[in-house]
Design goal:
Protein name: GAF domain-containing protein
Structural class: alpha+beta
Oligomer: single chain
Distance between the termini: 18 Å
Strand content: 15-25%
Number of strands: 3
Radius of gyration: 14 Å
Order of helices and strands: EHHEEH
């Protein structure tokens, strides 16, 4: 799994890679994303934001997001057995 936190420090690098329809739908410019793989195959993407520019994402929220995604990925892997 690969995770990414789009924030003020890296937005110039990653924001241009986002499809325009995604930018329009999420209505925020900071978010977390993490790919999910089961048996080395990509099966999905987790996404989280705070839906408001007034409520910024932080390091603790990012760590918790990654942990939840990792638990979910393990659960999916167990279901795929």
């Amino acid at each position: 799994q690969v995770s990414l936190w789009i924030n003020d420090d890296n937005r110039k690098k990653f924001w241009p890679l986002m499809p325009d329809d995604v930018k329009t739908r999420i209505k925020t410019n900071s978010f977390f994303a993490m790919s999910i793989h089961v048996r080395d195959k990509p099966v999905g993407l987790f996404y989280a934001d705070r839906r408001s520019l007034d409520c910024k994402l932080d390091e603790q929220a990012y760590k918790q997001f990654r942990q939840i995604c990792q638990f979910a990925a393990k659960g999916l892997a167990n279901l795929a057995k």
